[in-house]
Design goal:
The protein has 170 residues and is an alpha+beta fold. It has helices at 2-29, 70-76, 79-82, 85-88; strands spanning 34-41, 62-67, 95-104, 109-118, 121-129, 140-150, 158-163, 166-168.
Length: 170
């Protein structure tokens, strides 16, 4: 009987803590007037994304691309990515799509850390998450699609994007 009571209390605590954590992130990560949705894809969703860019010595490890409208989405996204419900549900008259890419292990994933307003646009911070355990060396392109709906209704003219606090220059 004590075990059931303990499990019930533990479960209630996790639910409450999880709700508090989500509220805390919602309150701190995104400014008022901005709505955000994300989808992580272990693949290159861009026609000119990381998998197609080769420098003199190696591939770049990160990249981002802003998709401001439906015509740009058709040109920038791969055919497979364009068919994803996440992209199809984007109302480009109200939203923009930001694709952040990072070359890393298949065991990792990208998460949105924070969005801040800056003078003429947005600062977007993305973080990498890893499960506990051994690192797998099978690097591939990861794409985080971020749908940003701003009540101001403007397309950001300036973007500052960082992954793991390292600014991406495109």
């Amino acid at each position: 009987m004590e075990r059931r009571a303990y499990l019930g209390v533990a479960a209630a605590g996790l639910v409450l803590a999880g709700g508090r954590y989500a509220t805390m992130l919602d309150g701190q990560a995104v400014p008022d007037g901005i709505d955000v949705a994300t989808e992580h894809v272990v693949d290159d969703v861009l026609e000119g994304g990381l998998s197609t860019q080769q420098g003199p010595d190696e591939y770049p490890v990160h990249y981002y691309h802003l998709v401001p409208d439906e015509a740009s989405a058709s040109a920038a996204l791969t055919e497979e990515a364009s068919r994803k419900s996440f992209v199809q549900e984007t109302e480009f008259d109200r939203s923009v799509l930001l694709v952040v890419q990072y070359m890393m292990s298949s065991e990792q994933w990208l998460t949105l850390e924070q969005i801040e307003r800056i003078e003429d646009g947005l600062a977007v911070a993305v973080d990498t998450e890893s499960p506990a355990g051994e690192y797998v060396q099978d690097e591939g392109v990861h794409s985080l699609m971020i749908r940003i709906t701003d009540d101001k209704g403007t397309i950001p003219t300036e973007l500052r994007v960082s992954v793991n606090s390292e600014r991406i220059d495109v």
